[in-house]
Amino acid sequence: MRFLVDDTSLCFINCHLAAGQAHANQRHNDVAAVLEASIFPAEKSATARLDTFVGGGDGTMILDHELCIMNGDLNYRIDTMSRDTVVTAVKGGMLQKLLERDQLLVAKRRNPAFKLRSFDEMPITFAPTYKYDVGTDNYDSSEKRRSPAWCDRLLFRGGGKIQQLDYRRHEVRVSDHRPVSGRFRLTVKRTDPKRRSAMWLDCQQRFDEVKQKEGGEEE
Questions:
Q1: How many CB atoms are closer than 10 A to CB 74?
Q2: How far apart are CA 23 and CA 9, in angstroms?
Q3: Beta bridge partner(s), residue 69
Q4: What CA–CA distance (Å, rounded) separates 188 from 150?
Q5: Is residue 205 part of a domain?
Q6: Which of 2, 143, 151, 215 has its CA 20 to 30 A from that of 59?
């Protein structure tokens, strides 16, 4: 979903990535497919493109937008630890030990091509949100005994124009996931076309003066 506030473009993305402990690469591919797809109609006005989008984009892609917030079941898991070890660590409050092996955070640190490297995430201070026996506070006790993980995530992109105020989970027991939420403070801009044009012309003139000066010195 996208919309404009004054002259700032915002895009909200909800997605459900590939499931499975061993399918981290498929999740990476899913992210790339989502972020690289042209999913919105192009903005026809050159002025509107200049004022509201970034990177020379025309608004067709998610990353053309100034402010982006992504949420959903991203399905990233905790690597190289057994289910019982993870449960014991959660009960002991050793979340940092588990976060060091979270697939999403590891990919952001180690994979230069990972598309979510341009997104930020507020530090996680709550227990893994997946997978519970429905209606209880017990992690999966079925035959599959799936390992707990932070599948449900909330990420954002926009530099200093987005400030996340909180990041928390909610004890809703009607699903095998615990939902998460966050509150944000967004900074949007309003462009004065006349002042922008005057500034643009002034910058061009100054640049031409610099080029002429450097050219004269070389001669």
A1: 23
A2: 33
A3: 12, 156
A4: 31
A5: no
A6: 151
User: Is residue 39 a part of any domain in this protein?
Assistant: yes
Six token digits for residue 47:
């002025």
Residue whose structure tokens are 């490297």: 117
The two tokens of residue 202 are: 């002034």
Six-digit token pair at 41?
């109609």
Q: pLDDT (tens digit, 9 = 90+) per residue, 132-168?
A: 999 999 999 999 999 999 999 999 999 899 999 999 9
pLDDT in tens, 68-114: 999 999 999 999 999 999 999 999 999 999 999 999 999 999 999 99
Token pair listed for 97: 């030990």
For residue 22, give the CATH number of its domain.
3.60.10.10
